Amino acid sequence: MLNLTLNRPSGSNRLNGAARSLGASLLALSALTTGAVAHAAPTAPADSALVARGAYLAKAGDCVACHTAPRGVPFAGGLKMVTPMGAIYTTNITPDPDTGIGGYTEAEFAGALRAGVAKDGHRLYPAMPYPSYAKLRDDDVKALYAYFMHGVEPVKQANRPSDIPWPLNMRWPLALWNAVFLDTTPYADKPARDAMWNRGAYLVQGLGHCGSCHTPRGVGFQEKALDEGGAAFLSGAAIDDWFASNLTGEHNTGLGRWSDAEVAQFLKTGANRHATAFGSMVGVINHSTQALTDDDLAAISRYLKSLPAAGGTGAPPYRYDPKATQAALVRPANDSGAKVYNAYCLHCHGADGRGYAPLLAPIAGNPNVLEADAASLINVTLNGSESLVIGGVPSAYPMPAFANALNDRQIADVLTFMRAGWNNGAPAVQAADVAKLRKATAATR
Q1: For the chain, what is the domain count?
Q2: Which domain holds residue 126?
Q3: CATH code of 148's domain
Q4: Does residue 58 fall inside a structural domain?
Q5: Helix, strand, coil proportions of the chain in percent (round to 5)?
Q6: Residue 5 forms part of a structural domain
Q7: Which of 69, 98, 198, 303 counts the highest number of beta carbons within 10 A?
Q8: Residue 244: strand pairing partners
Q9: What are 23-59's pLDDT values in tens digits?
Q10: Phi/psi of residue 161, each to 5°?
C-alpha cells in the first residue's frame, strides 16, 4: 500500500541545513541554553489571551516537531538533525532558566528567531529557517514569547552539543552568510492583493516556512527564493532522502489539478482525491495544520493556488487513460513489477490505480508518482509511514514498510510498473537507487 502525496523529509534527516518547523526556528536557540548566560526571566504577568494566541501560532509553526526527541518531553529538544557539516541537536525551548530559554527577554527571543543571533551574541546555524521567520510581525513574536514563557512547562534538560567538527563549527562565517542571504524586513501586505491572499502569503512564507523544504537550495545552502517573486519558490527540492513536492501551479507534479478546497482538505485531514500524506508530512498534519482555522487554511490555499507553474518535467498535462490501465494489467506473467503490484499493492491501490481516495491514495496521476525524482517513492516503499491521527483518531491504513519483504530489484520493478502504468509516463526506477536509499535510511528502521 503506497500512500503518496506532498511530503517533507523526516525530522531526523532534515533538509541539509534547514529544519522544518517554527520549532526549528527556535533551533536557533541552540545558543540559548548555556548556563553561563545571565537569567533575565520575564516579570510581566501573563496575558491569557496573548498566551492562547501564541499557542495557536506555535501549532501553526509545528514547533513541537523539531524540539521534541523521539519519546522525549515536548519542547525539551534533543532531536538529531543531519546537515552536510555534521549532526546538530535541537534545543530545549521550555522556560527552564538553566537549560531552556527562561532567561531570554522578548528582544533576545526575537533576535534569535528573526535574525539568527543568540542571547550571548553568537550566530546561529541556518539549520533553522530564520530567513523565513524574519518575516514575522512584532505582535506574533510577542505572542510566541508569551506562550513559551507562560504556557509551556519548564523542563530541566541539558542541550547536546553539535557533532560538527572544528573548524566547520566556527560561527563567525555565519555573519557573512547573513549579510548575503538574510533580509530582516517583516512581511508587508501587497496592496494589489486581498486580505485572504496576504494572510496566506504571510503564513506560507513566514510562520509556515514552507520554502525551507519545498524550495531548492543554492551553493550556500540558501533557499533560491523566499517568496513568489523568485522562479524557484516552492518548486520542489531534493532533501536528504526525500523529494519535497512542488507546491506551484505545475499541472503534473504540483498543485495545478487541485482546487483551493482540495488543498485545504489535504492540510486539514492529510488526504484528498489526489494524494495522502506520508513521511514527515504526516507529522505536520498531525501536530500542526489540522489545528489551523478554516480561514487560515483557505488563505494558505488561495496563496498556493496563485503561484504560477514552476519546475516539473515539462510533460503534457496528465490525463487518466483506462486503456493504459488495461494494458498494464495484461502484462506477461513474468513481469516482476506487475507481479509485485498484484501481490502487495493492488488490494489498497486498486486494479485501476485510483485507490480508494481519500482513504487510500491513488497511483494514477499522483504527483509523487509523476515526479522525475523517485526518492520519496523509494523511501516510503522501503520504510513506510506513520499513521495520520485526525481529531484523535488514527488512520486504519498507514503505509507499511517493505524493506524486509522486497529486495532492491523488486522495489525498483514495482515502482517502474507504477510510474509507467495508467498513463503516468514517469521514468523507470533503478535497483541501484533503491540500494543506495536502503543503506542511507537503515538507521531509521
Answers
A1: 1
A2: 21-181
A3: 1.10.760.10
A4: yes
A5: 40, 5, 55
A6: no
A7: 303
A8: 237
A9: 333 333 333 333 333 344 565 667 999 999 999 999 9
A10: -65, 160
